[in-house]
Amino acid sequence: MKRTQTLSEISPPPRLRQLFQHGDMPWQIMLVLVSILVLVLMLAIGWMLWQTSVDARSAFGWSFLAPTADASWDPVNDQFQAWPFIYGTLLTSLAAIVLAVPISLGIAIFLAELCPAWLRTPLNWLVELLAAIPSVVYGLWGLFVFLPTVVAPLGAGLATLFEPIPLLGALFTGPIPLSGASRLGAALILTVMIIPTIAAVSRDVLLAIPPAQREASLALGSTEWETIWQVLIPYGLSGILGAIILGLGRALGETMAVTMVIGNSIESSASLLKPGYTMASIIANEFAEAVTKLHSQALIEVGLALFVMTLLLNMLARFLVWRVARKTPQEARV
Amino acid sequence: MRNKLFIVFAVLVAASLLLAACGAPATPETVTVVQTQVVEKIVEVTPTPDASIPTALPAGSVQVNGAGATFPAPVYADWAYAYQYVDPSVVINYQAIGSGGGKKAIVDGTVDFAGSDSLLKDEEYTAGKDLQMYPTLAGAVVLIYNIKLAQAIPTPAAGAAATVLPALVLDRATVVGIYNSTITKWNDPAILALNPDWKDYLPDADITSVHRSDGSGTTEIFTKSLASFSTDWTAGGASAIEWPKGNNVGGKGNAGVAASVINTPNSIGYVELSYAMSNKLPFASLVNQAGKTVVANNDSVQAAMAEGTFSDKLTATIVDGKSDGAYPIAGYTYLILHTTSMTDCVKAQKVLEFFKWAMTDATAISRASALGYSALPDAVKTNVLAKLAEVSCNGAPVLK
Questions:
Q1: Residue B263 and residue A144: Cβ atoms within 8 Å?
Q2: Which member of A183, A270, B196, B327 has the lowest number of beta carbons within 10 Å of its beta carbon?
Q3: Could you tell me which residues are beta bridge partners of residue A327?
């Protein structure tokens, strides 16, 4: 199969006068400038974070990021270590991804393949509506409804189930606070928040797969399940991975809702059931009133670490997509 | 043909909707309602016809920008609203971005005035050249609690009055003990001794202490008080601190702390008095340094302010007062101005007039105390007004 040619490949190289005559050249220059803008913005943000955290970086060095159980974040004595926040961000985001991916894939498959036509429009609409709810609203709902009624009893149950198991038990050391404010609460809120993103994009990926693929598979005698699992999912895998990256990005950077439900406490315990802190929430919480120079610089350094972490995770995910895409046909690359 | 008919119909519908929308406010009833509302507002705030304020400038022509502490933000916003009726020419914007942000903004000269709960440091005085802090108000921080009673209050016999538990009483050592996690149960002997009426009701349950997770002046007042209460408090006093390890959670803002306390049985948390009052949350009485039990209110904060002594920079600490009536967890909030380098003299005049009005006008003071803040006592006020009168613009005094 021959892949579609792009505009630059089809048209022959034009003469200079022609370019300006029809405005092609100015248009092209404009577009190049606009795309360079993205790069410039990224570099400007990174440079600003690097520059404005210089004292904190020289004062604490790598120990700022080092994993320790008894990290201190003490604005009074100007002692700062960011590990509790890094751990909180990673744990809540990864837990949210683990929970959200199967659910969102289920939603996407149902919407794209199995849903009766009359139900499809309202369901699509609802999924997209869920993605449009502002995060502070999720936070309010989480704080007043979700934490006390769902997370607190669920956490208590998880503690009795998993705590005795070695290794895994460290993640489920109870008891969960009675209010439910915990890393588990944050992870569940994040799950709810990223499900619509992942589901909507995956659904579009599945819908973009040419019908011939389905027909061929069904004609060979596959069941619906086999068609979905062995043909459609592998075909759209790179696009689905892209959707998961989008969800992960939202989870890593989410500030408001998480701050409202996570309990904002620097815990030495690794447990999901304990209150915690994330990188975005410490910045949101303390930056406005950070009076000493080192305190505000340490917060900016947390921002820098979050920035780099997001970049690294995105690059890793891109690499995964690329690995997968090499094995899938061109048309399915999204 | 059908298309044309449809268009005509659509136009008619649209026109009638428009007419309906425009027509609505013209009905006589609505107009009366609007008018009474406006009249009420004017009546409420106009008993201060101030002849000294020139009204020559057109309404809203002077924009004054302030930024800073969140602690006084509700009352600054309320004053700014009321002041429109006193001097319509000025519009006052106050952005509650936090004390740190406010101080940075006034040092950089990006705002006309700043609000702050924490004091300027020497290097900030140097960087800002001619900065001066003026206390504008004082407020108290109170401890709200949610205790799941060990047993239900018995239903009273016919005719007898029902048992009503008084407000919980804590002394300075127990507050420190609770936040230090050295007092971990509600039925700790130290708490029981202070609350004989609660003897049968305080549960054998762990105390969850709730603190502000965001840096705030409230936390600064509270932790500075703890540091003053007892040498056992080693975490220091600042707008954000490292809380001792223990059974504690952080909530964002007054609302976050209150929500955590309400949602968590057997918890305690601290919020501003104004917040506790407007949300009708029960709060604990405290035993002060003189050994007297005091309730946080305007009187007890005034008593605390009465004994505060001002430094030459017009700042004072009023935590842990020694007099009988003083509420021990209280603090000033400050206004910060440039004293000589303001260049827009009209604006400078409007800022000073606004704060002079806020501190001296009876309406402004009653508005502040309705929100749970305490106005300055007269002695302090005289000091502050004298300092305000020293502010100059292009060499000439601003306040005439």
A1: yes
A2: B196
A3: none
